[in-house]
Amino acid sequence: MKKINALLFNQGGKCFYCNAVLDISEASIDHVIPRAKGGTDDVYNLVVCCKYANHAFADYSPKHKMTVIKQLCCFSSGCQKIFPREEEIIKPPTENAQVAELEKQVQSTKTQLAELETKMQSSKTQSDISLAYRLLCQAVKSLEDSGEEATNSTVKKKMLALNPLFNETDYGFKQFNKFLLQALHEEIVTLRHHKTNGNYIVSCVKG
């Protein structure tokens, strides 16, 4: 206690680092060159600072300490306003917390990738279905040009004749009629019921 009183008196009752008035109850002896780095207990290597600064500095070199002081201190506030008390210091995350945070980031990345894949698939489907609509209108026109009736059954046969790889299920439709109804919804074709059976008469919208 005598040593800390003497050092504090020599420093004018102020913290060596931030120059704030320092109460003896908040004072702590700091090794300018940490003992872990070869510093001694000689008086020329000892200064008094607040315990919060001493705790924050740990085994910092003098140069590192001054860098921290320049970044954190305004040289007018007390040390307790500059350096957090021990219970206020943010502790590094535990291993479990780090794992949980990593898992959270991985899950977030998976979600983003899934959303991107969905968007890409949707874009691909939209692009592909436009080709299917073009094939649909080609089939209808071919039937009309040959004087045949363009019903849903004859249209599909003609589409397969023009492109044997066509399959409405590739575009998410379980039935060909569902495909035609979607084309109707997007104003690609018009549909009207056949007079004698349950088929549709298909006509392409001009445009």
TrEMBL record:
Any coiled-coil regions, as ranges: 99-126
Entries under SMART domains matching the protein: HNHc (SM00507)
Keywords, sorted A to Z: Coiled coil
One Pfam family this sequence matches: HNH_5
Keyword Coiled coil: yes
Listed InterPro entries: HNH_5, HNH_nuc, LOTUS-like
The keyword DNA repair appears for this protein: no
Domain HNH nuclease: 3-55
Protein's name according to its UniProt entry: HNH nuclease domain-containing protein
Gene source species: Candidatus Thiomargarita nelsonii
